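Input record (one chain):
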Amino acid sequence: MKLALRLLLALCLVAPVLGHAQSTSEEEEAGDVSEVDKDRLGPLRERVRPVSGHLFLKKGRFEFSPSATLSLRDAFFSKYIFGGTLTYHPLETLGVSLRLGYAVNAVAGAAQICTFGDSGAGDTRGCGSPTLNQLDGQAPGQLKLLGGADVQWAPIYGKLSLLAEKFVSFDLYGIAGASVVQYRGPELSTPTGAKNYLTGGGNVGVGARFFFNRWVTLRTEVRDLIYVEKSRTTDSYLRNQLLFELGVSFFFLNGSES
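The corresponding structure, as predicted from the sequence alone:
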């Protein structure tokens, strides 16, 4: 009887060691099974799913995008440009677009106009915010109409994780093209007159699209508009105008499934 009890006790002590050795041997043969099971069964496996491929395809599709644009860092006029862009995408990363916009001008908050007293020791000078009539045609940067043709190149496509549960697809693109600009400037034949001028120019910039679904995106762009203006002091000079654009794009046709 005592011998049987001793044998039973010995088996109880040896069994865990044998079980551990067998488990270790199986893990060595199959890899780190415990970590694989942890990833497969853990809560993050259900919340974060693998992401691959393009949710949104642009190749062979037209994109129509109404937009609103705001000028940045303008000394005289704050410009609000309302218009739209029509783009055709012959390739997934390449687009060719036409754009048109109408500009509404307001006096910039930083604009000042100063008056001087008679010359002499008692000269006084006062400065204040000008009216739109005072600046009309006399200050640079008074845009009226914008048009142009651009080329878009979108080499970057990605996805953003929102709270580890939902993904938003986006692409980043560069843009460059030629522009036609109508602006209001001084009538050089008179001391105070103003008239509309038409001139050529170009623009370069960067943009991004955030895809709501296969048909609608939110689009943002920052562009530098470069064109030539006339002035009373010089025949013409080069101007740079930084523009921020926000629009919603609607895509037509099914696009390539390749």
